[in-house]
Amino acid sequence: MIKNIKTPLLLLLALFLLLPSPQAHGAEGDLIHQEVIASYFDVWKGNNWQDTDNDGIADKPGQRKQPKFTYTAPDEILEKYIITDVKIKEPVTESLYEKAGGRKSQPDGSEGEMVWDEFSEWYNFYLADIHKANANLVNAEEGKAEVAWDITLKAPAYEHAVDLTEKANRDYLGLPTSLFTDLNEGYRWYMPGVIEWYGIPKEGGPDLYVGSIDPGTDTVKPGETYTVEVVYGLMDTYDEPVKGRLELTHNGNPLSCVDGRIETFDPGEERTYTCNFTGVAGQNSELVARIVPIDPPEDIDMSNNEKKVIVPMEGEAPKQVGKGTLDLRAYTEGGKDVWGKTVPGETRPKENGVQTAKLMDIIEAKFTAPSDPGGGECYSLVTWELQEATISYPERHPDFTFGWPKDPVGKVSLDMPIEKGSNSTEIEFIENWSMNGAFLYLAMEDRMLDGPTYYDITVNYEILWEYWDGHVSGRKYKYGREFTKNATIAAVA
Length: 493
Fold this sequence. Notes:
The chain is mainly beta. The chain has helices spanning 75-80, 94-99, 116-123, 157-160, 167-173, and strands at residues 10-18, 30-45, 64-65, 68-72, 81-89, 103-105, 111-114, 129-139, 144-152, 162-163, 185-201, 208-214, 225-234, 242-250, 253-254, 262-265, 270-278, 285-295, 306-311, 325-332, 335-336, 342-343, 346-347, 350-351, 354-357, 362-368, 379-394, 411-415, 424-430, 441-442, 447-448, 453-469, 476-491.
């Protein structure tokens, strides 16, 4: 049996599915799908232990960790069912493994069923000390679930974890010999489990909707009152009355004349509701109407349950401002490779103004907010201050392996730290989502890996803008303005 292996970062290995015969499960729905999953946590060391999960603390054997992983139900399941609940079962026994359909791929990502003995000798041998595991349904419409683990990284690692520097283990996992050679220790602990998806058939299910939202005006003035009209309804595709909660907000604040009301709709029924809202100085008016299913708690099409309209403010338009700057730097830390040779750190070059990066490089992102726009004819600026900044970058595919490095899916978002009074911030993260540009043949797709690829790095941020109004003596207003700044990073060999 091959022992000890590891790869960078928090990686999760989602392993495949089976659609068993539905069994009754009360209000939660039927069991409609199961997957064997093998999440794992890696630690690496060069001169020092590295921060695997980007929480600001170096990770090493013996630590207690609470990693989280996201899973999504297959499209063919989402087409037929409304997801109502998810559960996680562990430890993975032989009967549980067989009932869930086993695993349909090998540790290196290649296709091929994994028999129980092979699975258990690998994933159940290199186990983290699992204290607890919970599964939560975070987005029923998208079938997205989050599994949270409470684990201890068993020590000593050389007895309880995969040694990721051993050639046999690297080969078994499909890790190219050229990766991570500047790190002299690396270990992996597994958290195997079976995730269960529960749901009800979509056919004939209820479909509440927001039909329209009419603000009653094209522009808003501070202090002026307007009447918004909203149409809520229930499609006639369901043959029973449905109870729903109405929501209506103005700039995030509930409009109590409608918001929170619980109403029962008959099939095919529409109702119109009106409510007043008042313009706010220095702000557009954003009106959001939503209807939430209560009884039954499912809805076959959540895409029509919300509508939004933004009404611009009337009067002097605020001056245009720049987008600020977002500078990226990719580098590696020095250390010793698997043969004990000292390897110096390296800063990746920029090509045609675009920062290049390789897999597992550290990315340093420095963001500086735009300078203030100054005063205007009708107001004088008092405050221009960076309040919030969130950086987003590609999210590693849950089935990414070094034998089959699948393209990233979705985005990872991190809050950037901001010191009081500062209009700049910086953060570091790992380029763990792409090997594009490497000379690699993908046997599963019968093609070579894509060449250098560009990826967007985005900062969404909010500025506090406070000013004195020249029209109203002694009147001070403040409001937040939201901006977006993009930069590009290129994955290269």
